[in-house]
Design brief:
about 300 residues, Sorbitol/mannitol transport system permease protein
Amino acid sequence: MSTTTLKSPVSTQARAREHTARKRRTSPGWFLVSPSVLLLLLWMIVPLGMTIYFSLIRYNLLYPGENDFVGLENFEYFITDTGFMPGMTNTLLLVGSVLLISVVLGVLISALLEATEFWGRGIVRVLLISPFFIMPTVSALIWKNLIFHPVSGILAAVWKFFGAQPIDWLANYPLLSIILIVSWQWLPFAILILMTAMQSLDQEQKEAARLDGAGPLAIFWHLTLPHLARPIAVVVMIETIFLLSVFAEIFTTTSGGPGFASTNLAYLIYNQALLQFDVGMASAGGLIAVVIANIAAIILVRMLGKNLTQQ
């Protein structure tokens, strides 16, 4: 009596994947790409290695001869520094607030532009996207001198028109001012991505929903928002990576003050390196910031991958 063995589909797929991976490793394309990969690794590993080295020694620009090995002492000093917790808190508040403003207003503005027809809509789209192409330093100067200035700013003129006392926004509400400036810069990016995604939405589904009696809010909630799940995830991931390193806006407007009221981790590292000349402590802070950024990136990538697999 003979028995027949059936090949498992799982094992067949595994062998196929292994064959494909082996073919990719031996293909000419791998050898052609390897110089660029090696150059990129050197471009990253050399600065990272120097940062790790400086973080383990006592290196102050005022005392260049003292290069004693201190181990993890710089990390301990950076974490216990008086500016670390305010910097961490301000970083989280800045990233979370800008993401919330960008996503919510981006979805609403994109939906409004997509749903309404009016003369000059193309010009409005260009104007909405244009702030994204302005350099951060230039936009920060515009907000500082033309909008937030307590004497000659636009908001001061509005306050005086209604008989109220003008507010020095950068002195009284420094973190809120930074959030508004950064949101103004990154909102156009969200609008660009979400508006492009809305244009790819199947119009036949909307027409079918209208024939079934669905109103604008029901169509937006049940059709538009689910369609924007992937673009929103992409916006959140990309903006988070860049928002963790916001520096120019703070340096140009508030210089991290008053006190540590508007200091984030990026500005705190700059403060340690170029204002207090403590390169070792700043290098330790840079490595801590890299770890935090990588943790955030891993979480966001997993969220994005989970979102894509569910679509």
